[in-house]
Design goal:
Blueprint: H1 8-15, E1 20-26, E2 30-36, E3 43-48, H2 54-69, H3 73-78, E4 80-86, H4 89-95, E5 102-107, H5 113-116, H6 121-124, H7 129-132, E6 150-153, E7 156-157, E8 163-165, H8 169-181, E9 186-190, H9 199-211, E10 216-219, H10 220-223, H11 229-259, E11 265-269, E12 275-277, H12 278-281, H13 291-307, E13 312-317, E14 322-328, E15 331-332, E16 339-340, E17 343-344, E18 353-355, E19 361-365, E20 372-378, H14 397-403, H15 421-436, H16 440-462, E21 474-478, H17 486-493, E22 498-500, H18 507-513, E23 517-529, H19 533-553, E24 561-571, E25 578-581, H20 590-608, E26 619-630, E27 651-659, E28 664-672, E29 681-683, E30 686-689, E31 694-697, E32 701-705, E33 711-715
Parallel strand pairs: 1-4, 4-11, 5-6, 5-9, 9-10, 13-21, 21-22, 28-30
Antiparallel strand pairs: 1-2, 2-3, 7-8, 11-12, 13-14, 14-15, 14-18, 16-17, 19-20, 22-33, 23-26, 24-25, 24-26, 27-28, 29-32, 30-31, 32-33
């Protein structure tokens, strides 16, 4: 994928006039950086994340990449035109409940909207299957807004947007003053039918600016202008709760970048797979939820297109979680009901599901049964696994991987951190093996298999349970830990092959530079089917004009802009819509509308079963969506010529490691990835050490290095 690094003088000469793109992704354990410029190799940086001051880890990671390029951070940033960023700051704020004390204004009489949730579904939504089995023991999650911070406001707009009861502005002012008195620093506003008429919510924002200028205000009509009373309210609350922290983080990061010599544009990744300018993203914190996993899926799509694989299972195993998404026919799958920590929200988001099974996931025994569990608790970056030597005291998956021989203590992270495997061995024996009455090695083998089985089950959930056959897919295994387990669970799933990208443990950062600037727009209105193309065009025309104005303000030319349209359709008297792409050229025709209906019925039957479509019931269009995309420059990856099959030059010797086929230790060949060439074939059992991850090829498998330096694992 990259060229050999030229001498410093040659690099310096080449760098003159070059403009770099720097992309940094903050994960729960590590912060990753990708640097590229057209005509130059891709450079990689990696460091441990630094919660709660994540910006420190960002610059540590950039410095790691700069060091590899033999330049200073200041030199690199001064020669950078675009900085792209993805962060877990919003996810962390929500999961740790560390957001702003938030007040909520609702239409009078609907003060319990947030607490009622979506009826009984709110009791088990987002729970694991094991917990759903005991519905009496379930309950709704504690809201992000305290009950005494909810106020009903006299006002009412009907379902057509007509004002039935004018806004009581004095009541608004009193409510805001009372909420501030209670310590609220953020305010969410969600009035009935405000997505049809936002006048009352906009007046509240104006009053808040006068009464409490420092109050952070989130309006449902701006953040989620769509039907769904509870979901819209929940979205506004989430945005308010995490908004100030997200804005402060983004603003502080841009200030620090400027202090270090960066003068270019900063873009922030969104959960739907697009980028937004920092200023806009700072006030749309809900869009940053799970933006890292979204970037990973975008990176997999880019690589899949390059390798001719339109059907990909994108598997990401980092330090905290295992995440998986599916790409079908080169198209991304979007979540039907996005949820974060059991809270529904309305925002387009790439469908990625996850479990707490990462390298830092803590291995523990059930206190009653002594049955081992992997996750969901994580040691994170601090203190991290025991073998990191940073104060960790509980065994993790990473410690287990070290105990079974997969990790070399002297070359972890390119030799920048020496692992203390003996400390991990003692703790694992005392806390896990002996209480189970097992030898430490046998217990470690079992934990390794449990972690792989959890991953296998999750992938089957997002494929087999949705009618997809894993055998039709290529599996992309990325993240710092996935390469150590993918040979085992990939063979169990019988996928076509496993691809461990060259950018494996920094693939989310790579996805950032493979994404585009994307603005999402929507209009909620109802049109019957059939309707003339001209009626649909009339709805889209102002959205297109708005998008063009937005891009013009951002300095983006018309030649780079692409529009994708989609419409939500449903059968009459039903409440669930299916979002259907509108396949048409710039000018919409009646034939394109007819094709839209056909596509809707095909999608409907794929979702609900063959024969479920029933055109005789009548149909209607309920929401019109526009995705405005500004195409960004992609990395140009150089494909290397084959250097032959023999990996002899990269062979580092042999080491005893766990071999699944033998259910025990056996000698395995050890390879230095940096010395492997395109075309080299590694026969398992083998371990390949790279500067950013480790790849295990099990017995009976082969690992082949392709022209882009990806490792392709195939099953014999």
């Amino acid at each position: 994928m990259t060229k050999r690094s030229p001498p410093r003088a040659e690099k310096t000469a080449k760098r003159r006039g070059a403009r770099y793109v720097v992309a940094t992704d903050v994960g729960g354990t590590c912060t990753d950086t990708i640097v590229f410029a057209v005509g130059e190799p891709v450079h990689i940086g990696k460091s441990l994340s630094t919660p709660p001051n994540f910006a420190d880890g960002v610059f540590d990671s950039i410095k790691s990449a700069a060091d590899a390029m033999d330049v200073s951070v200041g030199q690199l940033l001064a020669d950078t035109a675009l900085f792209v960023h993805g962060s877990t700051v919003v996810d962390n704020t929500l999961l740790t409940r560390d957001g702003a004390k938030t007040g909520l204004l609702l239409t009078e009489g609907f003060e319990d909207t947030l607490h009622v949730t979506r009826g009984a579904y709110g009791r088990w939504g987002g729970l694991t299957e094991d917990r759903i089995k005991h519905p009496v023991k379930t309950d709704r999650p504690a809201p992000l807004v305290d009950p005494d911070c909810v106020r009903g406001i006299p006002e009412r707009v009907d379902y057509k947007g007509a004002v039935l009861r004018p806004l009581d502005e004095e009541a608004v002012a009193r409510a805001i003053a009372a909420l501030v008195e209670r310590g609220c620093s953020a305010l969410a506003v969600s009035f009935l039918w405000s997505f049809y008429n936002a006048e009352h919510e906009e007046r509240v924002a104006a009053i808040a600016k006068r009464v409490a200028p420092d109050l952070y205000v989130s309006m449902s009509s701006a953040i989620a202008p769509v039907p769904g009373e509870y979901e819209r309210t929940s979205t506004a609350v989430i945005n308010a709760y995490a908004g100030r922290i997200a804005r402060d983080y983004v603003n502080r990061l841009t200030e620090l970048l400027a202090e270090r010599g960066y003068t270019g544009t900063t873009l922030i990744m969104q959960g739907y797979g697009g980028l937004l300018p920092a200023a806009e993203a700072a006030d749309r914190s809900v869009g940053m939820i799970e933006c890292g996993p979204a970037a990973g899926v975008i990176g997999s799509r880019f690589l899949g297109d390059l390798m001719g694989d339109p059907d990909v299972i994108a598997a990401d195993m980092g330090g905290t979680t295992f995440k998986v998404g599916v790409i079908q026919g080169g198209e991304l799958e979007y979540a039907r009901e996005p949820m974060v920590d059991r809270f529904h929200y309305i925002a387009p988001k790439i469908d990625v599901i996850s479990i707490g099974a990462g390298g830092g996931s803590i291995v523990a025994l059930d206190p009653r049964t002594k049955v081992p569990r992997v996750g969901p608790r994580s040691a994170g970056a601090r203190p991290g696994p025991i073998c990191y030597g940073q104060g960790g005291t509980e065994p993790t998956v990473t410690d287990v991987l070290a105990l079974i021989g997969y990790m070399d203590p002297n070359i972890f992270l390119g030799g920048t951190m020496r692992l203390d495997i003996e400390a991990a061995r003692k703790a694992f024996a005392a806390q896990i093996a002996r209480p189970m009455g097992m030898k430490p090695d046998d217990a470690a083998f079992g934990i390794y298999r449990i972690a792989a089985a959890q991953i296998t089950d999750l992938i089957r959930e997002i494929t087999v349970e949705r009618g997809l056959d894993p055998r039709d897919f290529t599996l992309h295994a990325f993240g710092g830990t996935c390469g150590l387990l993918c040979g085992l669970f990939g063979e169990e799933l019988a996928v076509k092959r496993v691809v461990v990208p060259y950018t494996a443990s920094v693939n989310c950062a790579f996805g950032l530079v493979a994404a585009d600037v994307v603005h999402e727009y929507s209009v909620t209105t109802t049109l019957p089917v059939p309707s003339p193309a001209s009626a649909i065009e009339a709805i889209y025309a102002p959205l297109v004009a708005r998008a063009l104005g937005q891009f013009k303000a951002e300095g983006i030319g018309r030649e780079r802009i692409r529009f994708d349209r989609a419409i939500d359709l449903r059968y009459r008297r039903q409440v669930h819509e299916v979002t259907t792409p509108l396949r048409a050229e710039s000018k919409l025709t009646d034939r394109a509308v007819a094709r839209l209906v056909e596509d809707f019925e095909a999608l409907y039957q794929r979702k609900y079963g063959k024969g479920s479509a029933y055109r005789e019931a009548g149909m209607e269009m309920t929401m019109f969506r526009l995705s405005a995309r500004a195409l960004m420059t992609r990395p140009e990856l150089e494909k290397r010529r084959s250097a032959g099959m023999s990996p002899k030059a990269a062979h580092m010797g042999k080491r005893r490691v766990f071999v699944a086929a033998k259910d025990g230790f056996a000698p395995a060949d050890i390879y230095d990835f940096e010395k492997l060439e395109s075309g080299n074939v590694v026969k398992g059992p083998a371990v390949i050490h790279t500067p950013i991850t480790t790849i295990v090829v099990q017995a009976g498998q082969t690992g082949r290095i392709d022209g882009y330096r990806n490792t392709i694992i195939e099953f014999n």
